[in-house]
Amino acid sequence: KAVGFVAPGRPRQRVTVALNATVVSRFEITDDSAREYTIELPAKILRGQNALTFTLPDATSPQSLGLSKDPRKLGLAMYWLKFRTR
């Protein structure tokens, strides 16, 4: 479950998810509602140790948008992340 940082001047957050450097999902968030997203992680690219990477090219700071003095780049707030096998 996650929510994107969407505000005036930043109407969307593009999200790319990669498992071990292989892109497994691309999606766009256009509102500030928390939602559940389902992404399949193919077994054929799993390893003994895995890296799940989220790329957020639209991440920006509230300060740069004139919303607050917060200089941190915001893109995606993750409420929880669950893995399960099928």
Describe the fold and architecture:
A 3-stranded antiparallel β-sheet has the order 3-2-4, with no helix packed on it. It has a two-stranded antiparallel sheet with strand order 1-5. The protein has strands spanning 2-4, 13-19, 22-29, 52-55, 76-78. The two termini are 19 Å apart. Helix content is 0%, strand content 29%. The chain is an all-beta fold. A hairpin with a 2-residue loop joins strand 2 (13-19) and strand 3. It is built from no helices and 5 strands.
Beta-strand fraction estimate: 25-35%
Query: What sort of overall outline do the alpha carbons produce when their principal axes are compared?
Result: elongated
Helix content: under 10%
Largest sheet: 3 strands, antiparallel
Average pLDDT, all residues: 94
Which value, in Å, is the CA radius of gyration?
Answer: 15 Å
- Report the end-to-end length measured between terminal Cα atoms: 19 Å
What's the helix-strand series? EEEEE
- Class inferred from helices and paired strands: mainly beta
Strand order of the largest sheet: 3-2-4
Low-confidence stretches: none
Give the count of helical stretches: 0
User: What's the number of extended β-strand segments?
Assistant: 5
